[in-house]
Fold:
Amino acid sequence: MTDLVELTVAEALDGLAKKEFSAVELTQAHIKEMDKARELNAYVTETPELALERAKASDERRAKGTAGKMDGIPVGMKDLYCTKGVRTTACSHILDNFVPPYESTVSQKLEDAGTVMLGKTNMDEFAMGTANLTSYFGPVRNPYKRKGDESFLVPGGSSGGSAAAVAAGLCMAATGSDTGGSIRTPASFCGIVGCKPTYGRCSRWGMVAFASSLDQAGTMTRTVRDTAIMLEAMAGFDPKDSTCANVPVPCYEKALTGNVKGLRVGIPREYNPDKGLHSDVRHVWEATANKLKEAGAEIVEISLPSTMYALPTYYLIAPAEASSNLARYDGVRFGLRVDGNSLDEMYINTRTEGFGKEVKRRIMIGTCILLEGYYETCYLKAQKVRRLLCREFEEAYKKVDVILAPAAPETAFGKDDDSTKDPLVMQLYDVFTVPSSLAGLPAVSVPAGTSDTNGLPIGLQVIGRPFDEETVLRTAGVIESMSGMPIRPLRVGGK
Structure:
């Protein structure tokens, strides 16, 4: 029998339809693989019994001819999606034992499509991080290693557990969430496909909030086709989420024509700085643009001048919203409670013990930004810059159909590198992903090559017009076919 963890989602669906194997066998293979790769720390809560129960139900549906779009596919669920009866912590001590009595819309849609949840994947605490180092349950290890170097590499954050699990074959696909790059950076570092759809394309209801005007559910898979399948299952209008757009969800697979002839691809000059972009990333970016040109696309240089203000804008807006959202964790209604001699002391004790260092830092920054005097000079000004950036993207899309840019300025770095000790340096890794997040645009990170220096994967970002995921995925699919990158999962643990 084919090694089941080697299959893509599309291949597995085909095999299940042909009865070459069962959903139970597929699930058992992935549970076994999870046991082999605990060193990655990709999962914080495993649900093998629930998975096998759902796999058995999937086989029964398929026998009756009522199988769903992703029936029998084992998936990982990022630990900020509330899952009824299954612990959901956002990888924070303050929610250490929280078991939701309800299901998030995205996880419910995936369950309705027939997926088999293997467990909850590790992440940066409350999705605040670039390297997956801030989790209460410890850091996630990237399954990739540098050439000739066994050191611990980060998988990127905040969806690092999902990225590592997909890359290592511990699930066939996983959910992520993207506020400023939390899907695209891990996808680039782990050599997989990560899609942040348009803001409002997928419901945020039942997701633990970080920054409500920026958070968006998304997909993490091995191939662009798998992304198309999963995104169609996840997306759609939800009346429970006031920010969810009531627009039709197309069949994204039909968009994967393999043809980019006549497509106008924008190259933003501001994304190519003299310093800060590794030469290997620049080389892969330029080589991919040339290949697209050879395939019939038109390469157009564009300008997004407000990009230089995107990072400070994001790090004013996001912490401000986080400060407001995280005020609900007070030890009164749910989650961790540390008693004190007064109500105020209980609040202080609970939040002091419950939140990690990075979350506390961002709450304090956000609270300061919202104070009288700073609100006008910082928060409102940041919102004006955000609007300006949106207008620049709108003007750019009069000239181009998609934008091609790096997903990250370099490849995965070491857990103990000096950069990980300085939060301001860590923020620089979001420099290419934050602009499209502020504008709410769809963007996909797709493996486009490897570094000549260290052999690690390099992802490129395809950014599109609002609700035009079809063109983004079509372009990403062509890049994937030209890259020569492997799509089979890594073997970890030497087993």
The radius of gyration is 21 Å. The chain has a mean pLDDT of 96. The longest strand covers residues 443-450. Residues 12-495 form a domain with the Amidase signature (AS) enzymes fold (CATH 3.90.1300.10).
